[in-house]
Please model this.
Amino acid sequence: MNKKIIKIVSSLLIILTIFTFSVVLASDDTVYVWSSEAEPLSTQTSATTQSNTIQTNSNMLKNEINISAQNNTASTVNNSSTENTSTSNSNKNTNSLNLESGGAILIEQKTGQILYEHNMHEKLRPASVTKVMSLLLIMEALDSGQISLTDKIPCTEDAAGMGGSQIWLEVGEELTVDEMLKAICVVSANDCTVAMADYLCGSQEAFVQKMNERAKELGMNDTTFKNCHGIDEDGHVTSAYDIALMSRELLNNHPSIMNYTTIWMDTLRNGESELVNTNKLIRNYKGATGLKTGSTSVALYNLSASATRDGLSLIAVIMKAPTTKIRFAEAQKLLDYGFSNYQYKLIARGGDILKEVEVNKGVTPKLNLVIENDVGILVKKGEDKNVEQIVNIDENISAPITQGQKLGEMIFTLNGQEIGRSNLIAEINIEKRTFFNIALNAYQSWFNMLRT
Model:
């Protein structure tokens, strides 16, 4: 009886093998069958085409823009590590908000789009707003593992001899990086800034060289740093535009800095040193997230102010305001203008499945297409309902397919202009169907049936 069953199973397996082999030959155009009349195989391969291919002459801004003191019509604040997905209708400087400051700019933090500007490339003294770059380098050192928040930083003679705003560190006194950041962000401590510079680079001079190198990488062409703290020094200049650049870099790539820049009051040295934030907007402006104040008798009153409401993050920079009151009032005026007129909307979420598509010659016949990354847009309020979506998917999706492989794209337009896009990628790997994997699957299926 057992021999009979074995013979039956063997016969079925032989028939199944012959059948599957013939299926592969019929369905796979890469299998070559010899014939005396056959022509040689072509060495050419056909390129995958996309359906509904569109060509746009959109005004998408390139990742790097030409920045010059004469160009007051630039529409996006960029840096080399961030791609922008928005366009701008920013006009030439008209100062319609009647700002009294020497220079100003308002940008949207995520995209870098410029919403308002006034003398944004005017080279002016930044005072302690300089410390935005110092903070950026400190945060990058933290991210790279060069330092940790618990490391103790000693006060050097160079740091102890600083004037201006400080917490009166003594030579040899140690604070943790966490405490140093708190003092720099909340009370703009010059001594703590120099102590960090000495610790990270060996000297303030070496640290300042690194500041200038980083500024070049970010496209801060209006900027020359002479020190890391901002005390007036000939040739130590920047612009509202450049401050927006480094502020955006700090906030976008190191959001934990807001753990410090949003502190209103705190203490150091076991409660002996009281800290009160020099940025009054932290206390009285809804959604304020930072960032840095600065003032000297020559630079007058400067501010890089950031705030977030309903998913919209803005950065307003004020330079050379005649009084501290005007500095905060004009920063608030810029932020109010942005929140009143614009909205940031997430229109596609990375990781979401868009649709299921068929796969030719794959061991799995269907595949989910996944949206690769978030797509957010900045539009004037009410314009989001006019956004149109175009989906382009490859016409012939064939195995093998690698997880994450691009198989199409989503494009979003507003009034005919492209404002964002995302790739559509494969959710999983799919192997190509071959005689061997078909036969293997068939054998496994038969054995599973016999076991039951």
